[in-house]
Amino acid sequence: MRRALIWITLLTSALVAALLLGAVTVLDWRDAGARASADATAQATAVAQVLSITVDHDALRRAVAMTSAGARGDLAVHLAGGPTVGTSHVGPQDVAAAAGRSGSVDVDAPGGTARLRPVTTVDHDTAVVEVYLPGDAALAGLLPRFGALLLVAVGSVLAAGLVAWLRSASMVTALRTLAASAATIGGDREHPPISIDGPEELTDLAASLNRIADRVRQLLASEREMVADLSHRLRTPLTALRLDSESIGGGPVADRIRRAVATLGADVDELIRTAGDTCREASTTCDAAVVVGDRMAFWSALAEHQNRRCEFTCEPDTAPVPLPAQDLAAVVDALAGNVFQHTPSGVPMAVTLVRHGGWVTLVVEDGGPGIADPEAALRRGASSQGSTGLGLDIARHAVEATGGTIFVDRGRLRGARIRLRFGEAGAHHARGEPRAWRLWSRRARSASTR
């Protein structure tokens, strides 16, 4: 921003300096031409006064030599019927035409203009005084003045840029303080209020950021309290469920129910601990191959109980993604839970994990009727089947947190296919798709909404 301010100041100053320099140059040019014309008239008048006294050639030569134009060879006297004293730049016909006039006349001459003035001599004859004006006569005096003005203009522009650089220092410092403070809003640590010295607009912005930070802290505290309260309330029905599971006897089904209840209890305890832990790190990395494999072991057993064909393919040995393990597990559970909740028993499902080119892709598909409105399904809380509508929204938020994308379309099993494209942890690559989710919907071929 500081560089932009300096450039704006320099460009504005340069524009003003250029306009002033152009205007002064034009006026000076006109003034130089007027001065050259007046000087020529004055020298012609001086020689005319000599002609009113004498027509002696030697006297005229001395009078011509005493003028600045004569010294340069730019002044001549044409006597009637006699020789020309000085250096002439016009032809005899121009002199003859000027002798018949009553006033001065300007005629074109090689490289400039000649001013011819008829004069009545002491012997009552008509002589013509010629003063030659070179075309660059005005320019010769104008160039030094133009150079001086140009130096003044350049100095003024540089001075304006220096003043802008000095004056913007405090504003840039204030903006950097605001940026650093704004980056901490929403964190778990307490930070002192933002205090800056700068323009009134920046101080108002700092006050607004302080109010936003206070509000965010209040909302985060309320959210943690709500999560902790809800999790604690779940303990009572969970305890009853655990007691019931212990009383159903033995067998594979009973063991699976007990494991599910134990997992649910661990998840509730983790929610309570997380809600009270204000120093939890937000950028944890996990191995997707391990997490997805662990969750699919649970869902494969449940699929076998429902006579579902469950295929799980994990190509990489390791697939690090910048997500906490519990968040990725929640994504897998949400997507697999959707399959079990919204498709009949016996419908096949397949889960594939692929790692390639800095991305980790998780594909979950089924042989159900598909998703009629993928865009609505990805909106938080939207569901036409009486569920919470949070499953795909949880997946979308998780994948976007890694810089990836979510795709919804039909798969090889002729049902819904959800493709999550996670950014690989530590990988640097150009994103081929936008961060927001992209939808490939085929509503015409879909039969129902999940």
UniProtKB/TrEMBL annotation:
Cellular compartment(s): Cell membrane
Entry membrane topology: Multi-pass membrane protein
Keyword set, alphabetical order: ATP-binding, Cell membrane, Hydrolase, Kinase, Magnesium, Manganese, Membrane, Nucleotide-binding, Phosphoprotein, Protein phosphatase, Stress response, Transferase, Transmembrane, Transmembrane helix, Two-component regulatory system, Virulence
Transmembrane segments: 146-166
Class of enzymatic activity (EC top level): transferase
GO cellular component annotations of the record: plasma membrane
Chief place where the protein resides: membrane
Catalytic activity: ATP + protein L-histidine = ADP + protein N-phospho-L-histidine
Enzyme Commission designation: 2.7.13.3
Histidine kinase domain: residues covered: 229-426
SMART domains per the UniProt record, alphabetical: HAMP, HATPase_c
Pfam family, one: HATPase_c
Gene Ontology MF annotations: ATP binding; phosphoprotein phosphatase activity; phosphorelay sensor kinase activity
Cofactor: Mn(2+); Mg(2+)
Domain HAMP: 169-221
PANTHER family: SENSOR PROTEIN CREC (PTHR44936)
Protein name: Signal transduction histidine-protein kinase/phosphatase MprB
